[in-house]
Amino acid sequence: MRYLPKYSSLRYALPLMTLDAMSVVVSFWLALAFRFDGRIPAVDLRLLVFAMPIVVAVFVAINFFCRLYQYVWQYTSANEILMIGAAAMSATLLLLVASLLWVGARPIPISVIGLGGVFSSGMFTTARYRQRLLTGLMGYLQRVVGSPDRRRVLIVGAGEAGQVLARQLKARSRNGRYELVGFVDDNPKKIGLRIYGTQVLGDRQAIPDLVAERGVSLIIIAIHRISGPMLRDILSICLTTQTRVKILPDFFGQIEQPNGALPLRDITAGDLLGRQLCEVDQVAYQHIIAGKVVLITGASGSIGAELCRQVLPFKPHRLLMLDNNETGLHDLLISLQCPEDAAVATIVADVTNQPRLETIFAMYRPEIVFHVAAYKHVPMMERHPDEAVRVNIHGTASVADLAGRYAVERFVFISTDKAVNPCSIMGATKRVGELLMMSNAARFAGNMRPSLFTAVRFGNVLGSRGSVAPTFARQIDQGGPVTITHPEMTRYFISLSEAVSLIIQAAALTEGGDIFMLDMGQAIRIEDLAHKMIRLRGLRPGEDIPIVYSGMRPGEKLHEELVASDEEKLPTDHPRILRIRSSYAVDSAYLLDRIAGLIELAFGQRNDELVEELWRLVQQDALLPHDQARALGSIQVKWRTPALPLAPTIEHHATKTML
């Protein structure tokens, strides 16, 4: 039977059986030594040696039938100690009965059997809980010696949730991260008692004194079904201290739902990434967002909508959600469950309509801008390069220019890994956007309040519109086939919520002119992702769901890159965000002239010339080595500071197109 791994179970049990056998031998020898006050007669010792194989076999057999070799003792509760005692008692009683029925002189005295059984039970328990005993000893030594990296934890609540949390903290105390100081509970009957060896030290009013006296560095509120007033009162007490405060989710409440369902969910494509939860600096979020006017372009898209969701809880003075998709904006407003009022405004506008943008900037005076609006579909933009340049370059230049002229505090441009050594029109337009961020940081450096321009570069967002995961899911739901472009194609993936969290974090880290790159982890084979998604549905790839290889599409790379050969990755204060340092600087004057030429070609729909000029621009002919850029000095930085002279040219070509 394949479902019963007998070999693995036996291999796990053999070391424990050996320990039990040795424990029985030592226990009965000690019992015999006690029986004769340490002076064991030779005849009794020989009889014990003769009977010992039978005694060991009885104890090990009873332990086996009581399933004492099938537990993972590192995670068992105290209830299993009763099983150990019951097994030892059963073996002892069996040997006592056999000894009483023995004809002739008994090989082992009855007192030795009884005492040997007691000793064996104790040694069985020690053998199984040796790791916990060692952990407790090491924890005690660490508490005596002290460690600056250990978090001294105070748990508020000595009920079920607090006990579960305490047990987990005790289990993890061997890594030296946590030290449980004690409990706090308002039930006077619990005060002074011990739970998992830790004392209930007082009620909630004692929290400030306990923090000061015991050096508490973390308070965890672990109360099942805590009421709002109680939580606010406890928080107000905890916040009088300088200690960090966290709360344990009410998982008991989730389990006790009326439908009796456990808080379970299906495994999603995001789980397949294997990425750990991303911690962010909430204080930094608050600093750059709270009380500010925040403009998000492309707000109805996947990234833009998630930005709105994550920005709104930090209470901006006004959140401006701009998009040319009026239906998408309407749906977003409904999903946010907040009415359009003074704090939230939807704006139907096109980022290429500069007069309209000028009116918006003059009216609302945004302080933080997240520029997400862009065309992102690689094969589609290969067929429409004029539209890619119009939206991704002209739109970015227009919004960024207004941001500089209206002294926006921070401007964040959303880039892509396709901008690195681009081989697609979309990637090339995004590369020009990165160059614009570097250029604008220099152009507007002379402002009374310089704007901080930055670009954030990352790979594919799992679950976003047009992403491969929703496409695969839809194809699987339809019964296949699942379409894969190339069996060796790889991509970098990041979840939508994590990408947006890190975008906001990067906005807090920028010093102006930065290009940040999000840590994307390991590249994932598209074929492997498809196979796993099919298997998650309980289906077989290639049999239940056919797989078709369609070939690489125009503009696609087999393997995406995150860093160019002339770039260097530097760490930042956040482990998931890297700063990209280039060996080149942007020639701002040349870049702006070339962008104006590209826009002219795009409005004239001269696509052949447009593509040729675009490729020439991204081949670093708008870049200068840093030493040469420094030699240009103020001429390089202050060139065309008052405004980007694109508006007249744009209006002229727009008029020609309309006519």
Tally of strands: 23
Query: Helical element count?
Result: 24
How much helicity do the residues have? 40-55%
Approximately what portion of the residues adopt beta-strand conformation?
A: 5-15%
Shape: elongated
**Class by helix and strand content?**
alpha/beta
- Low-pLDDT stretches: 1-8, 258-265, 626-659
Q: How would a textbook summarize the main sheet?
A: 9 strands, mixed
Strand neighbour order, sheet with most strands? 9-8-7-10-11-12-17-21-20
How large, in whole angstroms, is the Cα Rg?
35 Å
The first-to-last residue Cα distance is 80 Å
Arithmetic mean pLDDT: 80
Search tags:
24 helices, alpha/beta, nine-stranded mixed sheet, six-stranded mixed sheet, disordered C terminus, 659 residues
Describe this structure in words.
By secondary structure, the protein is of the alpha/beta class. α15 runs parallel beside α16 and α15 crosses α20. It is built from 24 helices and 23 strands. The strands form 6 sheets. The protein has a 9-stranded mixed sheet, with helices on both faces. β8 (318-323), α12 and β9 (344-348) form a beta-alpha-beta unit.
